[in-house]
Amino acid sequence: MQKNKNTYKRFIIWLLALPLTALFLQNFVGETYFIPSSSMEDELQSGDFVWVNKFVYGARFPQTLLSLPFSKNTLPFSETKPSYLTWIELPYFRLPAFEQIKRNDIIVFNFPVEDGPPIDKKSNLVKRCIGLPGDTIEINDKSVLINKTAVAPLPKMKYSYEVFATIDSLDTYLYKTLHVTEGEMISSDNKYIFMMTEKEADSVSKMSNILLVKRLSVEFPTTDMFPGGKFSFWNKDNYGPLLIPKKGMSIHLNIDSLVIYARIITTYEKHSLNIQHDSVFIDGHYSTTYTFKMNYYFVLGDNRDNSDDSRFWGFVPEDYIIGKASFIFFSLKQKSDKSGWKGINWSRSFTSIR
């Protein structure tokens, strides 16, 4: 009888320890994330399941303490009911990092401009870190400059290309031959737009049924770029220069700098901000300068013309960073009509991310 009781106790302990261990690993070691879009192609593709290393940058402690484990942000069988309560929210804290975020690291983070949920319950995004704290970033005709030095483009980076052809089924043909997944005919004279790497575009230009391949660029200002205001003449291909905040760095406060950094002061670093005539008041005190309390980062998608990134919504605060995308755990094959999935893409499964 005693032996049966001990066996029963060990079984109960095992049942309790298993989910607690899984929860610990999920929060402090790593987790798998699904890639739903093409904004990071070709390095990451829609259908990839990516393992995110959470301890390499220092594991971030959960901030929303009352949360249903192993669930998304809504309760099972509900699309609106939150799976967490905001009654107890812990201050931001992370363990010591094994390495610092480097330029070109692919990072996973909570969406900074999603208002409403707590930080660790906001939507997850994955992008490539291009600008580090203290850098000045600029984009000139799609070419990225950091501190006035041009950054070499990545071989898998995609841009939009205008293609003139002699056939009306080029999108199907390119999907089968080069696995170009984004593109379509835009006019009846066999004019197409495709998202392609430079290598793919070069291959297409050499095909017998192709008349012209031309990389597209935006020449005119657009109104949807960060930070707006007097900087609204920027566009996604011609952007900046923009200074990325660094912990301990101080800036002079005026109307122009507040256009860029007001959200950092109020939303990310939790100060009140008031402007009276030409005077700035932070937490009720007249201020001519502001010193940043955290590091910030500037991120871009590898699919540069089809990515919602820092060009449109601004900086990523350090406390929003979840971890580093390390390798593709496995990947799903997409159907040619993009209506769903047709099995596992073994050629991409268990591959490293660069």
Outline of this structure?
The protein folds into two domains: 2-135 and 244-249 and 292-352, Umud Fragment, subunit A; 158-215, Alpha-Beta Plaits. It is 18% helix and 34% strand. The protein has five helices and 24 strands.
Please state the average pLDDT score: 89
* Distance linking N and C termini: 58 Å
Question: Which blocks of ≥5 consecutive residues have pLDDT under 50?
Answer: none
Got a strand count? Answer: 24
Classify the fold: give the CATH topology of the largest domain: Umud Fragment, subunit A
The helix/strand series, from N terminus to C terminus, equals HEEEEEEEEEEHEEHEEEHEEEEEHEEEE
Please describe the biggest sheet, giving its number of strands, its sense, and whether it closes into a barrel: 9 strands, antiparallel
Q: Judging by the overall fold, what is the CATH architecture of the largest domain?
A: Ribbon
Question: Which shape, going by the Cα principal axes?
Answer: flat
What is the CATH C level class of the largest domain, in words?
Mainly Beta
Percent of sequence in beta strands: 25-35%
- The H-level CATH homologous superfamily of the largest domain, spelled out, is Umud Fragment, subunit A
Number of helices: 5
Q: Please tell me the total number of domains.
A: 2
Q: What structural class do helix, strand and pairing data support?
A: alpha+beta
Helix content: 10-25%
